[in-house]
Request: fold
Amino acid sequence: MKEKITNQALRMLKKEGLKSLSMRKLAEHLSIDPMTIYYYFKNKDQLMAELVEVVFRKFYESLRLDEGIGNENPQKKLEFVLIEYRSFFIQYLDLSLYLIQSPSQEYPAVTMFNDRILDLILALKPYENPELTRDILVDFIHGNALSVSKGARTRSNVRANQNLTDQFKESFKILFHRLFYNTRLA
Reply:
């Protein structure tokens, strides 16, 4: 039942947004008594924390980051992970916003993801402090994703979305070069 509740909550969150998600509406969609939801989650914040964990863990596992860097190029792996994170952020915009708005809360899956990003950054020996470098890259992704998310959600024009992604990749490349090599691209 808990999985059924979280799956329905995710569908409602993506369709209707965070502001319209309530325990009562969720119970109505599931045709269950609201007290059933409260049996598993004492409040909306606890439900949201579960959603963050479930979604981030699935995202993290899909990236297969625990397979280690090995012979892979750490720069390409880091670029891939961060570009995928942008897509993930846009796909789960309301959940991502909730996460940003509750930074004091600890989410194990998010911490694991951030630690792995830091490992990849350390393998590249950044020009500045590694934690600062991670924070700058992640904040850049958040800002970019927020700026294009409304358009990306409403546009069915694949070409327009691809242009936004291409622009992001170009800006990301410039920022990346600056953070790791402290130079401008020619």
User: Anything to note?
Assistant: Residues 115 and 151 are 31 Å apart (CA to CA). The first helix runs from residue 2 to 16. The chain has nine helices and no strands.
